[in-house]
Every structure is written in structure tokens, then in C-alpha cells.
Amino acid sequence: MGMTLTEKILAKAAARSAVEPGENIWVDVDLLMTHDVCGPGTIGVFKREFGADAKVWDSEKIVLIPDHYIFTADERANRNVDILRDFAKEQGIKYFYDITDRADFKANPDYKGVCHIALAQEGHTRPGEVLFGTDSHTCNAGAFGQFATGIGNTDAGFIMGTGKLLIKVPATMRFVMDGEMPDYLLAQDLILQIIGDIGVAGATYRTMEFAGSTIQQLTMEERMTLCNMAIEAGGKNGTIAADETTFEYVRARTNKPFEPVYTDADAQFYSDRHYDVSQLEPVKVPTYLVPATQKVYEDMFTLKYEGQTLSEIFLQAGCIEPAAPSCAACLGGPKDTFGRMNEPEVCVSTTNRNFPGRMGDKTAQIYLASPYTAAASALTGYVTDPREFLS
Q1: What is the DSSP letter of 151?
Q2: Which of 364, 291, 358, 351 is CA-nearest to residue 321?
Q3: 5-168: which CATH topology?
Q4: How far apart are CA 132 and CA 47, in angstroms?
Q5: Cβ(235)–Cβ(139) under 8 Å?
Q6: How far is the C-alpha of 359 from the C-alpha of 347, rounded, in Å?
Q7: Strand partners of residue 305
Q8: In DSSP terms, which residues pair with 308 in a beta bridge?
Q9: Rounded to two decimals, what is the model's pTM?
Q10: What whole-number distance in Å separates Cα of residue 208 and Cα of residue 22?
Q11: What span, in angstroms and rounded, lies between the C-alpha atoms of 131 and 258?
Q12: Backbone phi, then psi, for 178, in 5-degree steps?
């Protein structure tokens, strides 16, 4: 019997010829990522279990990315970054994307922004590899044809000391998307459609594998949008088979070798759903701009449309000045966090989670939408179908 993409990656990482869903296996880890929210706890677990003077298993396979509560005067949040900095120096961590001047993020060349996008932009996401991160949206990296999933501080501390983790092989749910993408749809619409169909627990501890001609036409950024949201359906991970689009992106950012794997024709799936995207419609759901990374921020001031930069277009339309790149408002954060819902307001957001209190006030209403829907809603002041402006 054949194996799925995820099963093949895990079999290789376990030095096994084959694995099956439900098996518990030890896997070798290719990369561990942690950030300022979970990093201090992970470091604490590592030192408690392996010793105050212990050394990490591989200082070049750990990535530390401050990105959540950065631009705040909150002393506890600032201390978290200090802990990462001290640990990176102590352990000789090669990939620590530090920030020292919070007053001007552009003065920090090492600071990258949101960890999931930074991992990709810095060449840390590679086909066929196993990546764990102390953030539920680590599944974002599955867009590169790898196994990537979020873990807790205890598991991360164990990986720091051993480079291994015991996991259960997930069954795979396949979502085949074919057809020409309408000009009013974006990747966010596709994944919100899927989650709406299967429910927020519909993929609990399963792989969500995205395939089909529509998926092959998506950019890496669009593929990351799909895989990032796998956790919002309870998924263990999301994944997309690597192709030339993937290879071009990865090879432009790293010279490290990688070995892609692919789902066998006779692989078994927990479920197999098919969509004709040409028949789908947009998911209907004060304008803040929070770039994901330094690169995205720079693009806003350099990329032009009809002679104007994106920043000029946004500002002329009445948007608030683009903020420093970070996860920030997506996770609420301290009350001085840019874009945080401090009152029972209504927010249309292009982020990935909207349970009560996610962005601050527990009574605030958060509607998830694609960038098109968010832009249309910003123009009208109410939840708006983007086709009203695209027709």
C-alpha cells in the first residue's frame, strides 16, 4: 500500500520504510522554531530537564524569532526578548533574529517580523523536512511540501536537548481543487470554504493535503495562506506537494539541499473532497495595516500601481499609517498594541483566528475574510462582497 506525502516524510524521519496512521514513532527533527511568547518557557523546560549548563542538540537547527509582543512598553514582554537574546548568546544559536531598538524597527537589520513568514523568507522551510514550532500556525510551512506543526513548550524543550520527538502519524484528508480561479476569489476564500464545510474540528489531528490544478497555479504566499489555516479546522498539519514554484522560491533563499517526496497513487485517505473553484463565492465577513515582515513593509513603499506606491494608495484612502511588522494585534497583546480590540468593536480581519478575546476585548466581533473582502468592507464601512468593486 502506498503512502501519503506526510506519511513518507515521517517514515524517513523515523528511519522506517513505511508508517501507518495511528502509529507512534520517534522522528528526527530538522528545525525547531520558537518566539518571544513561548521561547522563555521552552528554555526553562530545557534547563530544568537537561541541566543549567546543558547544550542544545544543534545550534544551527534552532531558530529564535521575536515577533509577538515587541512594540510595547510592557516590561514583562520586553523581558521575554531579553531571555531569548541571553540564550542565543549562551548557546551560540546561529539563527536569532534580534531586535534592540523598539522605537524604530527599521534600525534593526536582523529583525524579521512574523515568524511563519520569516521562516520562509529566510530559507528555513524546505521540502521533505520536519519542522516543529511553539506556535499553532507553524503548519504554515507545510506549503513547502514538508511536515510542519505546532507543539508546546515541554515538547520543544525536549527537542532542544535531543533533536527528537515522539508523535502519532496523522491520517490524511485530501482536498482537490480544480478549475479556473475567479478574479474575485483569493486563497483565504478557499480555505474558509473548506473549514465552513468540515467545521472547526473537522480535521482534528489529521493532515489536510491540498492538491489539484488550482493549487498548482497558486503562488507560495497563497499556498501558505491555505496551510496556515489547517489548525483552524483542528488539523495536525497542512501540506502541498512541492513543484517548480516551490523550488524556485526555496533555491532563491538557501543553498541547503532538500529532497521532496510525493503522495503515492495508491495512498489511502481518511477522506477525499473535490471542489470546482469556479463555482465558489467570496466568504462574506477603522482600517489598520500590519505588515507581516520587514520585506512586506518595504514593498508597501516601493511597489507601485499606476504611479503610486501601495502606501500612498492606502493613506490617501484614509488608512492608518502602516505599523511595524509583527504578530501583535492578531494575538491581542498588551493594551498599547497597535490594532488591538480594546473595546467591543467589529473587525474584519485577514488573519487566521477569531474566537472570543483573540484580538483583545472578549466581546469584540472578528470576521475573517480575504484581502479583497477586507478592502471592499473598508470602503463601505460594512461587510461587503468584493464583486461590487470588481465587476
Answers
A1: -
A2: 291
A3: Aconitase; domain 3 (3.30.499)
A4: 19
A5: yes
A6: 9
A7: 308
A8: 305
A9: 0.81
A10: 16
A11: 13
A12: -125, 165
**Which among 154, 153, 163 has a CA at the least distance from the CA of 35?**
153
- Annotated domain spans of the chain: 5-168, 171-279, 294-390
Taking residues 293-312, what's their average pLDDT? 91
Q: Which residue is it, cell 495511528?
A: 22
- What's the CATH class of domain 171-279? alpha beta
Query: In whole angstroms, what is the distance from residue 179 CA to residue 44 CA?
Result: 50
Mean pLDDT for the chain? 93
Rounded Cα gap, residues 296 and 117, in angstroms:
10
The residues, ordered by sequence, that sit 6+ positions from 244 with a Cβ below 8 Å of its Cβ are: none
Indicate the helix (H) or strand (E) that contains 248: helix 244-251
119-123, 163-167, 235-239, 362-366: the lowest-pLDDT one: 362-366
Three-state SS sequence of 265-284: CCECCCEEEEEEHHHCCCCC
pLDDT tens for 20-78 read 999 999 999 999 999 999 999 999 999 999 999 999 999 999 999 999 999 899 999 99
Q: Is the pLDDT of residue 284 over 60?
A: no
A 10 A CB-CB count for 379 gives 14
The architecture of the domain spanning 294-390 is: 2-Layer Sandwich (3.30)
Averaged pLDDT, 216-230: 97
Q: What pLDDT does 321 receive?
A: 85
Contact 240, 227 (CB under 8 A): yes
pLDDT of 285 higher than 80: no
Identify which has the larger pLDDT, 348 or 210. 210
5-168 and 171-279 share one CATH topology? yes
